[in-house]
Amino acid sequence: MITPLPRTAIVATLAIISALLTTSVSAQDTPAPYDCAKISVSGNSYDISALKQTYKVTGQPKTEHPYKVQYDYVVNPCQAINVPENEVKLHCVSGAWVCRDKKVFFDESEPKTVSLLPIAGTAPAAENVPAREVAPLVALADKIENVAEAPWTLTLKGGLIDGQDQSAVITFICDTAATDAAVSPTLTGSLNGVTTFQWKSKSACAVHTMLPVQEGMSGFSVFLTVFFSFAFIYLVLGAVYNHQVYGAKGFDLIPHKDFWRDFPSLVVDVVHHVWDSVTGRARGGGYVSV
Q1: 41 contacts 138 by C-beta, under 8 angstroms
Q2: CATH topology of domain 39-210
Q3: Which of 71, 73, 185, 218 could form a disulfide with 59 if both were Cys (CB 3.0 to 4.6 A apart)?
Q4: pTM, to two decimals
Q5: Which family is it part of (predicted)?
Q6: How many CB atoms lie within 10 A of CB 270?
Q7: In the chain, what are the domain boundaries?
């Protein structure tokens, strides 16, 4: 029969396989460039390019001693807010995707804007402040009752107010009855620098005929393909060798049969070895060099 593989080789092989798995998973976590006409979430594709415009969201007045204040927002889910040259003082700085307009009621008249600050958007580096990017991120949201499709969220970052990082999280809900031209997002809350909106729109529905094109196999898929290909070749060639050289039949055709019988205990030994290395504890027993 073929000589069994040494225990040290098995440990090294399993360690390499573990490293390859970790590397492959990490590579899959890299986000694709954001395009609001080609959004991919959990196998479905979405196109919200019809919402590529400026929307105004009016907040509810509330008391902040000694005045009553109101927070309004301007939102564009696809790009930075377009600011007309003659209205620069009425909008956030250039590069904002979500702008917060803080208004104060000084008397019974209409509220007046006291600050315009970006909740999300890009900004170059300033003194003691690093450059910030909007970094759009999409993800599937929790299912809502009486909704045919599961909602999905769009997170926009990059804002900075009073030294605290800001972000806007928009939950899109598929509503085929909603008219995109007339429906705007609804403010649902603001806490610890995270402002949340809910947006019912027919554009939020999945476009199943526009599933993303598979550009190639992921690193993990390539690893599995190579692994099982080598495993198949190993079994076939090993069985042929054992039959031709030793006249083996039945289970004796399996190459390194004794090794595979002991493989579970070898895996346990490797796990124990890794655990002891991480925790810094030494196990009793083992081999002693003479």
Answers
A1: yes
A2: Cation-dependent Mannose-6-phosphate Receptor; Chain A (2.70.130)
A3: 71
A4: 0.60
A5: Belongs to the ATG27 family.
A6: 18
A7: 7-26+214-279, 39-210
